[in-house]
From TrEMBL:
One of its GO terms (molecular function) is adenylate cyclase activity. One of its GO terms (biological process) is intracellular signal transduction. This is Adenylate/guanylate cyclase domain-containing protein. Residues 51-184 form the Guanylate cyclase domain. SUPFAM superfamilies: Nucleotide cyclase. Pfam families: Guanylate_cyc. InterPro entries: A/G_cyclase (IPR001054), Nucleotide_cyclase (IPR029787). It comes from the Bacteria. PROSITE patterns: GUANYLATE_CYCLASE_2.
Length: 240
């Protein structure tokens, strides 16, 4: 978020701190579905059941060393723009964040079918990387390897920022986001790690067909697999 200069007022700072710290614990209520952002204030929050999906590039430092800045810009622009397009195609997407070459999303998933739909998003992401790599290879660019992590559970949703300044963001706290990020970090990390990693709770909410596409990985404490979108893969097979 763009910011501009303002003087720091120590007295007002202490008042803001006290206002937040004196807030009642009851202001942090549990929700089975993600509430409207308009319901958030600087003194409340919601424990929300939802799903997180993370995608991150493996060995990005090597990628940055291998290309000129204009080429890097083309790679990252195509990668990020199409990841966002795919993540946005889930009807219950609620948040998309871009942090360097990591793109992650939060989905409202009150029904099991919503979780299966997030799994399908992960499959499309996998096929997108295959598509991008075909196009990169034809131009002599480095191909991408990514990890994909998915987790289902509770996250604390709060409004954080500088009250009265207009500078604020919705922040997702708790184990859900950190678990999905960790699972993403496992994806394609070693020879035996597959691209897609999902938590045991996420796996337990999938339908039988989707469960069959994954296998348990004891050393990571999760399920993993290589899962693609069949329609997108038709193009990959014809053009690879």
């Amino acid at each position: 978020m763009e910011a501009s200069f303002s003087l720091y007022d120590f007295e007002k700072s202490r008042d803001r701190i006290d206002e937040i710290l004196q807030g009642a614990d009851a202001s942090y209520t549990e929700k089975k579905s993600i509430p409207s952002r308009d319901d958030l204030t600087f003194t409340n929050g919601f424990n929300v059941w939802c799903t997180a999906l993370f995608v991150d590039i493996r060995k990005s430092k090597e990628l940055n060393k291998s290309h000129t800045n204009p080429v890097l810009a083309k790679i990252y622009k195509t990668y990020i723009s199409e990841l966002v397009a795919i993540i946005k195609s889930h009807t219950k997407i609620r948040e998309i964040c871009i942090e360097g070459d990591c793109v992650w999303g939060i989905f409202d998933t009150p029904q099991k079918s919503d979780i299966d739909a997030v799994f399908s998003i992960g499959a499309k992401v996998s096929s997108l990387i295959d598509v991008l790599n075909i196009k990169y290879k034809k131009r002599g660019y480095s191909e991408l390897t990514v990890g994909i992590g998915m987790s289902y559970g509770k996250s604390l949703l709060v409004k954080s920022g500088y009250k009265g300044s207009g500078i604020n963001e919705v922040v997702w706290l708790g184990s859900l986001v950190s678990e999905a990020a960790e699972l993403c970090g496992f994806g394609n990390k070693s020879y035996s790690d597959k691209e897609m990693m999902v938590s045991e709770v996420f796996y337990g909410n999938l339908n039988d067909h989707n469960k069959e596409l994954l296998e348990y990985k004891a050393e990571r404490g999760c399920y993993n697999g290589y899962v693609i979108n069949t329609a997108m893969d038709e193009w990959v097979q014809k053009n690879g």
